């Protein structure tokens, strides 16, 4: 076979073709490398520290539970989880920062029911869509609300309270940790079901509310479970019911609202681990599995119980999505029934 003349190979157009061929081959190799690296990246996750944004100040039950979770996940996933507090605007500032983060699994958040469901429903102007911008990974834990009354109020059950309120319409007052909070909405809903008129007093948190309850200045208070459990020994308030579907282990003698005659009244406040909605499903799956491992650890169960949380519930990614969707419908019903809007 005749070999090509060397002068032909050295022509400028031939050299140009060779460069094009080699350049195209390099680009093809690079493309294969890039596109083939996607699954590898998910498999290698996490390859650097992960931020967990808590939308409340340090020291509260949500912050404490988040730190317990983060410490455990650091060991399970062999990577550091760093808690970062971004509080304000009923938790919506921290939640908004999660929606703006890169959806790579390295910025997660704690999503309380207030900022992930209630805020939008009651008319707060939040810079995100809770349904489309966030995705739930797992539930760290749920808390009940507790209906309490001052010690000298002549009632010993929810039925007694309803009877007294009907005899004095508009004369009794109940306090919550703030307007538009789960406690405010929950008791307004109960008022509608029981056809009673009790005046709402909004406090800035459980602490000043508890102070007025203990001092006898407030007849009825809607407290979080931990706040109520902490006052058991004081003897200066009585507990009539818990809003959860099951009895509260820290107050085992207190009936649920359902047991008190109000069928299907099951309201709990919870804290989800959340991520930007575009996060790789394989990364979400890893995080969900790690969450369920955490929730089964004896240390996690003990420490979360000490913070006042109900027994943990393990959920797959699909189950936690359904859980949130069902709770959203519940809160939509409550908001529509009560008509509570921001500023009420």
Automatic annotation (TrEMBL):
Gene3D superfamilies: Bordetella uptake gene, domain 1 (3.40.190.150), Periplasmic binding protein-like II (3.40.190.10). InterPro entries: BUG (IPR005064), Bug_dom1 (IPR042100), TAT_signal (IPR006311). It comes from the Bacteria. Belongs to the UPF0065 (bug) family. This is Tripartite tricarboxylate transporter substrate binding protein. It comes from Pollutimonas nitritireducens. The lineage of its organism: Bacteria, Pseudomonadati, Pseudomonadota, Betaproteobacteria, Burkholderiales.
